């Protein structure tokens, strides 16, 4: 009878068993992910071949055939017929101070070092969530550090007393300029971008209109144009006698430019916050600013961390564009060193660009990893 | 609130504990009208709620129930008529709106907990920032109410880690931490699985027994029978009928009420 087959009562518990060995461990992982089918196996081998054919020559050039020591170009020239010479690290070593400080006077370079150290000591603790006293830390990094760094880098003269000799920003260069522009741009564009995003969503028509015009203007102009305007055109409009440092003008241009992009990223986050979050906060009696600060922005910003960091990374790399208004960032400084006959060898420029690539990559990849770390850190359980 | 660990289905709360004030008005809505653009969503609403009253509001979807109770704490603005809450008339005056929101708690269909904060932080946020309560004290208050809704052990988890029923109980506790005089509920159990509805209703029954003034939009007729002293039926933006629960359910007067009740009682 069919009924006899349909009815069933379990008489004993089914045992819980360990997973089959072939599905766990390294072998299991490889079988599942790399060799699961013929197509996948072919792709795996193509991938290995591609990785090998790209990475092997780079390793050959950068490490195996590289020249590590030497006093001038002779060290990096082939001594016998057919010898291949790789990267000329001796040249990078000799030029390293220039790459870091530009033409900053030799005897004043300690001031730049102090600024770098202060930057690390005020910024890194702020980025590590488990360290306490974030409020104090933020004040140190956002208020104290910029003031101290400003006087250290530009100089300090009180009356007739020269406490720190003045160093014109035209003498700055290399990594110093890259970091000054990038750090200022990053730190200033985030709050400005948030303000613009809030403005664009404001109920007040004037605030909204001004925000929209601002954002669309800066997004509609290429950064190169902004830099030209800042360095060439703006001085024409300033009254006689008013000088206004070129680096400062570039800084402002880069910051406003980045803040427009930031505003749109943040606005995307704000739009993703459900209306219920606003209502929940309002029903509890929170006013607009506490609601924004405590409820809406933390969630909105968390959601767009990838976009924010994307903008930061773009900004960091865009600092190289200052070369066209006559300022020498890290890349500019490296390029200008190519004209030195003392070090001119066939691999000099490759080495220089490889070095620039490596440095930019370290900074940008660092930001990227940090953003992933923060995303994980701020993840609070599954969304329902 | 009740100390009964579990309320059985046939548990009848002691109505003698739920005293209704004769003179003290909690909410008074007079000739209130509201439009969304050209759409007349609330039409000539008149409602007087005394302190200690438990009002259940029901009606078909889109009849304006949510809009009406959201007008009470100004999540929606009304355009005509007056709303007086706890003696304060609702106007554009932000100070008055703040004052009213401090005294009126609200629970939503989708809980609206803050997902980036722990349960405890959800509960202490408003007392700390709105009532300026010291953090330690706010945490004590929060734990007290979390115990009352029977989930103190979840205090350090995040909302996303809790079940729907638990989240709604947290939402109730979060409102209670502000020590409100009036509680609004907008379909607090509609988004919940059947086995979780009861745990939330139990908490609400306990709240009624503690003498809280409550306005609940809900279709839980069992709840209405147990605790409501008035049931209001809304349709097309109007209050169509109101009565005490027994006569309302057994002997509805208006045709639309009859139709609605027949639809929800025997589907
Ligand atoms: N923000 C809004 N804008 C326009 N119409 C709305 C808005 N909110 C609600 N409505 C309309 O108002 C009516 C009443 O809505 P609501 O109060 O949510 O009904 P209920 O809670 O009784 O289901 C519905 O027809 C709905 O479509
Ligand atoms: Mg509704």
Automatic annotation (TrEMBL), chain A:
CDD domains: TM_PBP2 (cd06261). The chain crosses the membrane at residues 41-64, 114-131, 138-158, 170-199, 220-238, 250-270, 291-313, 350-368. The keyword Transferase does not apply. GO terms for molecular function: transmembrane transporter activity. Residues 175-371 form the ABC transmembrane type-1 domain. This is Amino acid ABC transporter permease. GO terms for cellular component: ATP-binding cassette (ABC) transporter complex.
TrEMBL record, chain B:
PROSITE patterns: ABC_TRANSPORTER_1, ABC_TRANSPORTER_2. InterPro entries: AAA+_ATPase, ABC_ATPase_HisP-typ, ABC_transporter-like_ATP-bd, ABC_transporter-like_CS, MetN_ABC_transporter-like, P-loop_NTPase. Keywords: ATP-binding, Nucleotide-binding, Transport. It comes from the Bacteria. One of its GO terms (molecular function) is ATP hydrolysis activity. Residues 27-261 form the ABC transporter domain. It holds the Pfam family ABC_tran. Belongs to the ABC transporter superfamily. This is ATPase. The lineage of its organism: Bacteria, Pseudomonadati, Pseudomonadota, Alphaproteobacteria, Hyphomicrobiales. The gene is aapP.
């Amino acid at each position: 009878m069919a009924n006899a087959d349909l009815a069933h009562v379990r008489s004993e518990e089914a045992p819980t068993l360990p997973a089959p060995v072939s599905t766990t461990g390294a072998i299991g992982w490889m079988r599942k992910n790399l060799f699961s089918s013929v197509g996948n196996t072919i792709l795996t081998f193509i991938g290995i071949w591609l990785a090998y054919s790209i990475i092997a020559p780079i390793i050959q050039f950068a490490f195996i055939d590289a020249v590590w020591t030497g006093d001038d170009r002779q060290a990096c020239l082939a001594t016998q017929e057919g010898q291949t010479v790789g990267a000329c690290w001796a040249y990078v070593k000799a030029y390293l101070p220039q790459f870091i400080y530009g033409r900053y006077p030799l005897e004043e370079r300690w001031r730049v070092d102090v600024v770098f150290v202060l930057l690390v000591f005020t910024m890194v603790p702020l980025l590590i969530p488990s360290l306490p006293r974030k409020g104090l830390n933020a004040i140190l990094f956002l208020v104290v550090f910029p003031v101290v760094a400003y006087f250290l880098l530009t100089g300090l003269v009180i009356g007739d007393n020269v406490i720190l000799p003045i160093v014109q920003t035209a003498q700055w260069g290399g990594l110093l300029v890259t970091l000054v522009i990038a750090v200022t741009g990053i730190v200033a564009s985030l709050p400005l971008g948030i303000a613009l995003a809030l403005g664009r969503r404001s109920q007040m028509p004037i605030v909204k209109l001004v925000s929209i015009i601002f954002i669309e203007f800066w997004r509609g102009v290429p950064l190169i144009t902004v830099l030209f305007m800042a360095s060439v055109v703006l001085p024409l409009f300033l009254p006689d006698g008013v000088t206004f440092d070129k680096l400062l003008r570039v800084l402002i241009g880069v910051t406003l430019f980045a803040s427009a992009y930031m505003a749109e990223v943040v606005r995307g986050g704000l739009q993703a916050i459900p209306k219920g979050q606003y209502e929940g906060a309002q029903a509890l009696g929170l006013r607009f600013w506490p609601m924004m600060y405590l409820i809406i922005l933390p969630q909105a910003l968390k959601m767009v961390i990838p976009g924010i960091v994307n903008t930061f990374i773009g900004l960091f790399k865009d600092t190289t564009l200052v070369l066209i208004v006559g300022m020498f960032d890290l890349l500019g400084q490296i390029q200008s060193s190519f004209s030195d006959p003392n070090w001119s060898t066939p691999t000099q420029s490759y080495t220089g660009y490889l070095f620039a690539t490596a440095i930019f990559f370290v900074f940008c990849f660092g930001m990227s990893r940090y953003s992933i770390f923060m995303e994980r850190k701020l993840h609070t359980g599954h969304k329902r | 609130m009740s100390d009964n660990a579990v309320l059985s289905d046939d548990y009848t709360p002691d109505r003698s504990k739920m005293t209704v004030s004769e003179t003290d008005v909690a909410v008074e809505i007079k000739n209130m009208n509201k439009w969304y653009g050209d759409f007349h969503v609330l039409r000539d609403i008149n409602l007087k709620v005394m302190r200690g009253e438990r009002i259940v509001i029901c009606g078909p979807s889109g009849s304006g129930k949510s809009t009406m109770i959201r007008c009470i704490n100004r999540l929606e603005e009304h355009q005509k008529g007056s709303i007086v809450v706890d003696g304060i008339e609702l106007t554009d005056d932000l100070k008055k709106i703040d004052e009213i929101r401090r005294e009126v708690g609200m629970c939503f269909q989708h809980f609206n907990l803050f997902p980036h904060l722990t349960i405890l932080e959800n509960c202490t946020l408003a007392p700390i920032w709105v009532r300026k309560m010291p953090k330690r004290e706010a945490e004590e208050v929060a734990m007290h109410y979390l115990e009352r809704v029977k989930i103190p052990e979840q205090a350090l988890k995040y909302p996303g880690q809790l079940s729907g029923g638990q989240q709604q109980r947290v939402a109730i506790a979060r409102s209670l931490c502000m020590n409100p005089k009036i509680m609004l509920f907008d379909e607090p159990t509609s988004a919940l699985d059947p086995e979780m509805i009861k745990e939330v209703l139990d908490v609400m029954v306990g709240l009624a027994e503690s003498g809280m003034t409550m306005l609940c939009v809900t279709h839980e007729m069992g709840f209405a029978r147990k605790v409501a002293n008035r049931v209001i039926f809304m349709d097309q933006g109007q209050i169509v009928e109101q009565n005490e629960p027994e006569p309302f359910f057994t002997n509805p007067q208006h045709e639309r009420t009859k139709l609605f009740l027949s639809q929800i009682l025997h589907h």
